Amino acid sequence: MRLSEDQLARELASMKGWERRDNSIRKTFAFKDFKESVEFLGMIRPIADAMNHHPDVCVKYNRVEVELTTHDEGGVTEKDVQLARKIDEIYKTLYSSGS
Description:
The protein has a four-stranded antiparallel sheet, with helices on one face. Helix content is 45%, strand content 21%. The longest helix is centred in the middle third of the chain and has 18 residues, at 34-51. By secondary structure, the chain is α+β, with helices and mostly antiparallel strands. The chain contains three helices and four strands. It has helices at residues 5-13, 34-51, 78-95; strands at residues 19-21, 24-30, 56-60, 63-68.
């Protein structure tokens, strides 16, 4: 079920770097180089597959833009928030910049 405006605002307040954009949430992650960017995507894939929920991603050399939405619901759902938090945890654990 799509999150209400208030629910989404509360979730985003606790998620560093994530921002709302239209009917999605997005964040850009920074890396040392292209290799790290691609490795990061490889770590996201099994989690997204397990959730059957796949983000839109764009790699720009040492940056990965991740965008999440639940198309069937027409906006951001709890599933998007859960995946965003898991992606943040991977980044924090492996790249320790906490961005």
